[in-house]
TrEMBL record:
Name of the featured protein: Cytochrome c-type protein
Provenance organism: Thauera phenylacetica B4P
Record-linked InterPro entries: Cytochrome_c-type_ET (IPR051174), Membr-bd_4haem_cyt_TorC (IPR009154), Multihaem_cyt_sf (IPR036280), NapC/NirT_cyt_c_N (IPR005126), NapC/NirT_cytc_sf (IPR038266)
Swiss-Prot/TrEMBL keywords: Cell inner membrane, Cell membrane, Electron transport, Heme, Iron, Membrane, Metal-binding, Transmembrane, Transmembrane helix, Transport
Region (Disordered): 387-407
Annotated heme 1 binding sites: C52, C55, H56
NCBIfam families: torC
Species lineage: Bacteria, Pseudomonadati, Pseudomonadota, Betaproteobacteria, Rhodocyclales
Top-level taxon: Bacteria
Pfam families given in the database record: Cytochrom_NNT
Membrane topology annotation: Single-pass type II membrane protein
List of residues binding heme 5: C340, C343, H344
The UniProt record lists the keyword Translocase: no
A GO molecular-function descriptor: electron transfer activity
Amino acid sequence: MKNLLRSLRDLFLKPAVRIGLGVLVTGGFIAGVLAWQGFNTAMEATNKEEFCLSCHTMHDNLLPELQKTVHWNNRTGVRARCPDCHVPHDFTDKVARKMQASREVLGQLLGTIDTREKFKEHRIVLAQREWKRFSANGSKECRACHDYKDMDFDKMRPASQVAMRKAAERNQSCVDCHKGVAHQLPEMKGARNPAFDTLVSSASGQSVDTGKDYFLVVPQELFADEGMTKRIGAIEVATQVKVLETKGDAQRVELALWRKNKGYGRVWYSHFGLNITSAILDKEIAQDTSFVKVLDTKEDPMTGLEWQQVTATAWMRKGSVLESVEPVWSIARASYNSSCSVCHRQPEEAHFDANTWPGLFGGMVGFTSMDDDTARVVLKYLQTHSSDFSTSHGAGSPDSALQTARP
């Protein structure tokens, strides 16, 4: 028994005396090669598109989107596969990405995105994570196929030439402009601009005097009663109102706006002849003459439409107004400059009139990551700083411009 224990001790604790150094080195080398080969085989297996699509979340949600794009089917037959875009090509970056992917595997196992509804809800987080990675590495995976130095700008459409030449000069990341080229863009409803929190905080501390004009910092619902139980419409951000009284958590305000004398007249605008939306009422309320008072009627010489200057009073939740609209415009201006200058030099605010801006902005905003609230306030900022106000009211004085809406 003692001899057996001694032998075991010698086997584990004493250097080998019968096995040559060459055998140990050779065995270690072979073991290392096998380990490396096993690691590399596992890496290659997890880099195949079949592996990506073996997860039903990817197969059911992302594959159908990819199959509708030029990256899946095109005249040249060159197709981008999942790893081409989402797995770094450099070895060290690839290993780091594989380690990060363990979080996504855990999310799948825990059921974070195991249904279509959960996937859509969580999609904004996944998208922003990838956008951040592409922005940080200059869209290196995209540029493995689409490199600026290999582009023939003269074969592009004129508008594309201007944008792409400027992007090449800045060595810009592809994802800054092309977020939705292979998959649908996520709904931005789950995202919000934290800058609005500052406005809400300021509004909650705003001292409000009866009979004075203020500006909304966030959209609000309108109610017919002090208890705010009967909803009658909604009022948009930056709309000017006169506060008539405050009771508890509610404020009664007066709206003095314009509407087209067409249909139900539900949409109310801040200025005559300009489609700058300020409030939208329920159709029954909009046609209620006991609620809506018509102060004046004018014909728009540009369209021949009849416009009515209207006024009404309604209740809304208190703590959502400021004395000046400039803090709202500051956020809108910063968002416009940061988001809309990524792809190209954005137009000056006064370059277009108020009625032209909605169509132009609607075509651009889809290429940005603006949430809905920010997009609405930026559009209103552009309209109230458009060429319609650049000379007669001053593009830098939105307070005075909005004052023209009130009789």
